[in-house]
């Protein structure tokens, strides 16, 4: 078959569409869709897909016709080498996914509210930047999930690696990894430190008797049998988990903070559910927080942290009416699909209630904050649990004062975050006693 790419804006003769994209990423993608429809060439190498059914099909064929390896906009990756990396990861992922079980998640849930209290306690009465604060909370949570109490020693190392990865992940012009650019060198050094820290914890834990039941993801990975996971597989599952979830729930929490303070009606309903729970030793069951969970789903719709995703074509494929050659990049924007009036009623309105009806509030495949297909998020259940419980506890225990909540712009970089959101968190008088848990106070 001959390649047949969709049309798209011509752009500058040398720099293509990058300058206009960089000036207003979401606006540019939206305008492309309005002008060219659901399939549009960003440049001669990257195709933007806006049709949710086509996106779902692409995600479903990942590892076969498409690869999740590779970075957005980057062309010329070695496809065989990327497919090899995908196969190694999938073998580790299959075994590692056993560590994402209900028992480990429940034990972790009992500790995570204490982590939120600790971080907010450090902020005291000061007005602080919400995004980094909540990123730290989510970093502490994932480190705890992976390593229990030992995780806290790793939080700053991971934070440094994420900081080194952001300029690479959010850039629209990608430099090959072998290029000795400062940002690539910083990333490589941070990655070496992360791997050394993870390897050290795995070695120490391996030398100890295995606890029953397993307390965290590392315990589960070390206990895997028939066959056992290799050291490399264990370290890969931990590395990918730490990086994939570092900051993603935190970004969502930052948007939730904004929404709770911006919308007293929503805050009141979340508080009602939170205060109906009278246990102080165990976190509430998710089933008792339907409105809070609906708010989390709604925020993940309207402010999807992973606002832009992509795949690399591995074999010649047909995408809608177009034919793409191996090596082409596909890009799709969950943010735009989640706000498209063809698939949603009143998509610009934040309405948790839309999730409380019998029927899904959207057209088929038009909601995918956790991705889909064989590379879907491993922490979907855990992420929902973390976000719902932390939101409930935030609304119950803290009075939040946000500076200018209505004017916070969405900043689409590596993640979609509320740029410049600042707030203070004061403990409500009747909540002074706080939550009592093993990992908390
Ligand atoms: C707000 C919460 C979260 C959101 C919105 C989210 C979203 C995502 C998305 C969109 C992907 C890419 C999926 C794809 O390419 O199809 C992903 C991958 C992943 N997520 Fe999450 N995530 C969240 C929380 C978590 C948590 C709490 C963990 C684990 C502790 C986690 C672990 C992972 C892993 C390991 C992958 C890589 C999967 C692979 O490549 O095979 N995520 N996540």
Automatic annotation (TrEMBL):
<keyword id="KW-0408">Iron</keyword>
<protein>
    <submittedName>
        <fullName>Cytochrome P450</fullName>
    </submittedName>
</protein>
<keyword id="KW-0479">Metal-binding</keyword>
<dbReference type="InterPro" id="IPR001128">
    <property type="entry name" value="Cyt_P450"/>
</dbReference>
<dbReference type="InterPro" id="IPR002403">
    <property type="entry name" value="Cyt_P450_E_grp-IV"/>
</dbReference>
<comment type="similarity">
    <text>Belongs to the cytochrome P450 family.</text>
</comment>
<keyword id="KW-0560">Oxidoreductase</keyword>
<dbReference type="InterPro" id="IPR017972">
    <property type="entry name" value="Cyt_P450_CS"/>
</dbReference>
<dbReference type="InterPro" id="IPR050121">
    <property type="entry name" value="Cytochrome_P450_monoxygenase"/>
</dbReference>
<keyword id="KW-0349">Heme</keyword>
<dbReference type="InterPro" id="IPR036396">
    <property type="entry name" value="Cyt_P450_sf"/>
</dbReference>
<dbReference type="Pfam" id="PF00067">
    <property type="entry name" value="p450"/>
</dbReference>
<keyword id="KW-0503">Monooxygenase</keyword>
